[in-house]
Design goal:
The protein has 22 helices and ten strands. By secondary structure, it is an alpha/beta fold. The chain folds into two domains: about 350 residues, ABC transporter type 1, transmembrane domain (ABC transporter transmembrane region fold); about 140 residues, Rossmann fold (3-Layer(aba) Sandwich), CATH 3.40.50. Helix 3 runs antiparallel to helix 13 and helix 7 runs antiparallel to helix 13.
């Protein structure tokens, strides 16, 4: 946690100061109990004389003697009853200062706690945004959301709340322990022999808590994953009348989470009663040993001092109890930290070189030379791909599902890096350029138009800084989106809903095209942009795409061959290899894979 605490050092310093004040004031407030008890029980008949502070007596003897001297002077001047009131008021005032310092120590930690949690959450989000797409093919979205919500909250309630305990309690324990030694080293020596047994018992109970907490958090992630899957697939669940099946699945997962949480909570709940019982056992033993000392003729303390000793000893038990709580809470939080670190420590294989260059524009061509790629070493997705796309050309990628078309176009903006071979833009390897300048050259229109829960304006202007309303309107008009936007209740300020749920498929796609138009990239990637649309929507979207493609270098993935008949060159992929290339007419004449696809779609 050091890196997260570093920006909040001043809060830690103030917390130490306030806790020191609280501990010292607590000692002084309870010290007034001794003369009170002596007066109440009429124990002390000694006549005290003031001792000079620079005399040869020990500090302990000087403090005790002069404290009693001032108290006896008050009794002689104002009487025992009024002196008792004065001492009581001193106790109340010291307690007020002590509680004020305690409040200060607690309040000063709040900005630290909330700040650390905010920093962790932001760091996780930044990491998620910057990680390559390959990472998310192995992780469940619900699990990542659970880590950002449940696990970060667990860190707040366990680790950051324990930081206060770890600052306050050692200070209190050291000061109280020093006071106990000051009062009676014999009693304190006896206490020390008993305390390790108490600590060992507490440690034995909390040993398995971290592992149990990790299990509980994993079960929580599974629950969140099922919820996320349910929300995404609600239409299919209803269509296949699978509500009961999904409910049973969720109930089973929730029951497993509950059982795991019960184990953690029961073990955690045992901390207070166990420490309470052990603390009482300690007090009983000390009472017995102290009583034995007092009953002997050579006791170093009297009864009122012994009561003061017991009060301070009981005061030291609370910090010890809090430390025992921390020993339970911290492992629980560390289990969550472990899960969060799986994201934070994930390796980002897409790296920029220190001396990376900036792409300004596409001047000549895009070239893939001997490119091979696999997500893992088990199966190669692309094998020895060679193709060149001249500036202004439109090339098309066709082939059966799983042939590697989408993977190929994902390599150009470096969503993944090639395993073998290289991709060049104007003769420069894309790995030698900055990611920002590379991706600035490229616009995407995907099969599934990805919109955000924001207004039409925000979705079209997404990724374009300082875009004006006029710019957005111009892009929307080219994409055939302006008319239906103006028909909505608030025009360009209308919210499109979650993932654009308030729009039809064709409308979502046209907003996606408008976004690409506004970005105005020299390279355009169309990933089956019209395959999910009805005939009317396809006509409007195709018209918008033609406007978009006019002056750009375009790479189009298509299932419907009618949309790419006019491409300068068509590449046919089969099992990760380019098996045919040419124009529509030349590929038909070849009578191979493309001809079969063409015949299946009944094209002339």
């Amino acid at each position: 946690m050091k890196e997260y605490l570093a920006p909040y050092k001043k809060y830690l310093v103030w917390a130490v100061i306030f806790n020191l004040l609280s501990a010292v004031l607590n000692i002084f407030s309870f010290a007034s109990l001794i003369p009170m008890l002596r007066m109440l029980f009429n124990i002390d008949s000694t006549s005290y004389q003031f001792m000079e502070w620079d005399s040869d007596h020990s500090i302990k003897d000087l403090c005790i003697n002069n404290f009693y001297y001032y108290t006896s002077t008050l009794i002689n001047t104002y009487g025992a009853s009024l002196t008792l009131l004065f001492l009581g008021l001193f106790l109340a005032f010291a307690t007020l200062l002590k509680t004020g310092a305690y409040f200060g120590s607690a309040a000063i930690m709040i900005p630290l706690r909330t700040g650390v949690v905010r920093d962790i959450r932001v760091k996780v989000y930044k990491k998620v945004v910057n990680l390559p797409l390959a990472f998310f093919s192995e992780e469940k979205k619900g699990d990542i959301i659970a880590r950002m919500s449940g696990d970060v909250t667990e860190i707040e309630t366990s680790i950051t709340s324990s930081i206060e305990m770890l600052i306050k309690n050692p200070i209190l324990i050291i000061i109280y322990f020093a006071t106990l030694v000051f009062i009676s080293w014999q009693l304190t020596l006896f206490t020390i022999t008993v305390l390790p047994l108490m600590g060992w018992l507490m440690g034995a109970i909390g040993k398995k808590l971290k592992q149990q907490s990790l299990t509980a958090q994993n079960k929580w992630s599974e629950t969140m994953t099922q919820m996320e899957e349910t929300l995404g697939g609600l239409r299919i669940i209803k269509a296949f009348i699978a509500e009961r099946k999904m409910i049973n699945r969720f109930e089973q997962c929730s029951n497993e989470f509950r059982d795991a949480s019960n184990l953690v909570a029961i073990r955690q709940s045992s901390a207070h009663p166990v420490s309470e019982f052990l603390g009482t056992c300690l007090i009983v033993l000390v009472l017995w040993f102290g009583g034995t000392l007092i009953f002997s003729n050579h006791s170093s303390i009297d009864a009122p001092t012994f009561i003061f000793y017991i009060v301070i000893l009981y005061s030291i038990i609370n910090p010890l109890k809090d430390l025992s709580k921390a020993s339970y809470n911290i492992p629980k939080g560390l289990a969550s930290m472990e899960r969060i670190n799986k994201i934070l420590n994930a390796e980002n294989s897409i790296r920029e070189k220190k001396d990376a260059i900036e792409f300004k524009d596409l001047k000549d061509s895009i070239e893939l030379k001997n490119v091979s790629f696999s997500y893992n070493s088990e199966r190669t997705i692309l094998k020895d791909i060679n193709l060149t796309i001249k500036k202004g050309q439109t090339i098309a990628l066709v082939g059966q599902s799983g042939s590697g078309k989408s993977t190929l176009v994902d390599l150009i903006p470096r969503y993944h890096d090639t395993n073998i071979g290289e991709i060049l833009i104007d003769g420069v390897n894309i790995k030698d350029a900055t990611l920002h300048s590379l991706r600035s050259l490229i616009g995407n229109v995907n099969q599934e138009a990805i919109l955000f829960n924001a207004s039409f304006f925000d979705n079209i202007a997404f990724g374009v800084d300082n875009a004006t309303l006029d710019d957005v309107i111009a892009a929307a008009k080219i994409a055939n989106a302006h008319d239906f936007i103006m028909e909505s209740e608030n025009g360009y300020d209308t919210n499109v809903g979650d993932r654009g749920c308030r729009l039809s498929g064709g409308q979502r796609q046209r907003i996606s095209i408008a976004r690409a138009i506004l970005k105005n990239p020299p390279i355009l990637i169309l990933d089956e942009a019209t395959s999910a649309l009805d005939t009317e929507s396809e006509r409007l979207v195709q018209d918008a795409l033609e406007h978009l493609m006019k002056t750009r270098t375009t790479i189009a993935i298509a299932h419907r061959l009618s949309t790419i008949r006019n491409a300068n060159e068509i590449f046919v992929l089969h099992e990760g290899k380019i098996v045919e290339r040419g124009t529509h007419e030349s590929l038909i004449a070849l009578g191979g894979y493309y001809k079969k696809l063409n015949d299946m779609q009944n094209l002339g």
